[in-house]
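Weekly sync, protein design subgroup
Attendees: M.S., D.O., the rotation student, P.L. (late)

Item 1: inverse folding check
M.S. brought a backbone from last month's batch and wanted to see whether the design step gives back something sensible before we order anything. D.O. pointed out we never logged the input encoding, so this time it goes straight into the notes. Structure tokens as presented (387 positions):
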């Protein structure tokens, strides 16, 4: 295929960096609410929700990786116009692909804003009670902008460094919380209809939001890097962490108690004691790790939006730097849009459904059109050969 439009930085990310990027993006604000949201409909079986809900996520990341392998070195912004218009009708392809590209960028933009708002709500509630919410949100945005001022290889290195610093402490805290486990709390294993289980699993989508950034970042994988493998590793690690946290919440508190707590994972950490009194207040360490996790989620999402705009408008690094500063203002107003925590949680549910459209339906349509075009070319070659 044509090499036109490839970024000079392609072949940048290793398998480890791709896995780090996906996992660091997925593990974020969803960690704090997942034990409550999964047990709302599935009760004791809530720990199954991340496992069942990940089926769609695995399929989506496979689709995204397949599209990226078909167009190596190109992002979704670049190959979408090729899918819709081919190499011959690039102008038509641009206009037909524009709605899909804008839906992707806007959805990712809103998701990033709402993630920052949830982060602010938790910090104001649990740590900095006298600090205005707006200050917390802007602080996170400033960090994201600083990362956007650099090229994409810097993003890869930041995620690579923070990944183990996020993953291992969260795993340690989750395992330590099993000291107070009452395993009877997960019995009976299944007492709700399968329809309810499927619905509950589907509603975990917000916790898996973020992997759609690979529509941009898979383009920068090293040529020997298995994109499907990186995607499966990243999501598999996230599923394991989520399942462990939800299971810990259920066996410690029970599903009824989880429904009365706004941030159940934070309460779980508060009730956990580390043997040997290494840390007297474990939630302080957890929140420090969680801040890093949310930063990678917000920064990766915002970087993908800015970089996508840069490619859509065919601009350079100067545009990326200016846009990252300018767009922080609408991002802030979207973040403070929900008037209270109830509206915020409704917005997260809506985002979960939107994510399915952006990360599953859109790539699926692109893939089907690509298959149709490839089949048409084969027919033309066959008829020419017989002619």
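Designed sequence read out in the meeting:
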């Amino acid at each position: 295929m044509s090499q036109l439009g490839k970024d000079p930085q392609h072949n940048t990310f290793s398998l480890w960096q791709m896995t780090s990027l996906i996992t660091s993006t997925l593990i974020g604000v969803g960690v704090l609410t997942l034990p409550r949201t999964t047990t709302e409909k599935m009760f004791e079986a809530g720990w199954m929700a991340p496992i069942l809900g990940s089926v769609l996520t695995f399929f989506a990341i496979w689709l995204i990786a397949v599209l990226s392998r078909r167009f190596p070195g190109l992002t979704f912004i670049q190959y979408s116009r090729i899918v819709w218009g081919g190499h011959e009708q690039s102008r038509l392809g641009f206009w037909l692909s524009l709605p899909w590209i804008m839906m992707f960028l806007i959805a990712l933009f809103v998701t990033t804003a709402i993630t920052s708002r949830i982060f602010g709500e938790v910090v104001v509630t649990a740590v900095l009670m006298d600090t205005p919410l707006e200050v917390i949100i802007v602080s996170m945005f400033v960090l994201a902008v600083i990362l956007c001022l650099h090229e994409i290889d810097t993003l890869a290195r930041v995620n690579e460094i923070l990944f183990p610093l996020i993953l291992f402490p969260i795993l340690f805290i989750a395992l330590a919380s099993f000291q107070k486990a009452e395993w009877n709390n997960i019995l009976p294993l299944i007492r709700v209809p399968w329809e309810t289980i499927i619905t509950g699993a589907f509603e975990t989508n917000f916790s898996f939001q973020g992997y759609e950034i690979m529509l941009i970042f898979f383009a920068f994988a090293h040529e020997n890097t298995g994109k499907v493998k990186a995607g499966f590793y990243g999501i598999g690690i996230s599923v394991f962490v989520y399942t462990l946290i939800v299971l810990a919440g259920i066996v410690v508190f029970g599903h009824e108690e989880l429904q009365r707590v706004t941030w159940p994972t934070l309460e779980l950490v508060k009730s956990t004691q580390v043997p040997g009194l290494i840390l007297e207040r474990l939630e302080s360490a957890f929140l420090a790790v969680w801040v890093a996790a949310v930063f990678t989620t917000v920064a990766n999402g915002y970087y993908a939006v800015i970089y996508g705009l840069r490619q859509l408008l065919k601009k350079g690094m100067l545009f990326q730097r200016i846009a990252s500063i300018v767009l922080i203002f609408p991002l802030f107003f979207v973040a403070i849009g929900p008037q209270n925590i109830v509206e915020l949680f409704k917005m997260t549910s809506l985002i979960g459904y939107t994510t399915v459209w952006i990360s599953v339906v859109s790539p699926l349509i692109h893939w089907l059109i690509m298959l149709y075009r490839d089949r048409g070319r084969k027919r033309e070659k066959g008829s020419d050969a017989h002619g």
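Discussion: Residues 1-5 have pLDDT under 50 and may be disordered. The CA atoms of residues 63 and 363 lie 6 Å apart.
Action: P.L. to compare against the previous round before Friday.
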